[in-house]
Amino acid sequence: MMRILHVSCSPRGQAAESYKLSQKVIGFLLKAEPSAVLVNRAIGGGAMPHIDANYALAQHSSTAQLSQEGSVSRSEELIQELESSDVVVIGTPMHNLTIPSALKAWIDHVVRARRTFNVTAEGKVGALRDRPVFVAVASGGRFSGERARQPDFLTPYLRTILGTIGLKDLNFFSVQGTGLGHDAVADARTKTDQALREYFSPAGR
Asked: What's the chain's Rg over C-alpha atoms?
């Protein structure tokens, strides 16, 4: 049975454009696999603490005596949640041209040396099985296309950092221009809905 991990990052919760977009992605996945199990992990609005000193020691030493409480315990819980998923859906706003701090905190917990990646003579090698990762992004401005007026550090960062742990099958969908008025948002939603339909159509797959 397919397991879908939904990581929602906006402090606005279910009212967020990125959350609504991620729900559309999940809708297509459930239509294809109605028996799939959905696991929700809401991390916005301070729900995801940042790593602590104990976790930092774990990153730098394989022999340190570490408490299994705090960030180390949380890290293991989040990694197991990720490992057990067949598909990951991340709903995130773009904050200051990149990911929000909540998503960075989640990443810091799951990107862990000697657990989800190993350091070799050739560099860092991911230890997780690859699986589809859908990233649903909402941004106040436009960061792609001819009308883009700001850079995009979110997409390359997520491709690189998730690739570090072995997740390379990333698919991005976005609603851009949420701060540009109702008409701009409606137009962006229409275009994104079309992109989703094309991707999840038999021809698109």
From this structure: 18
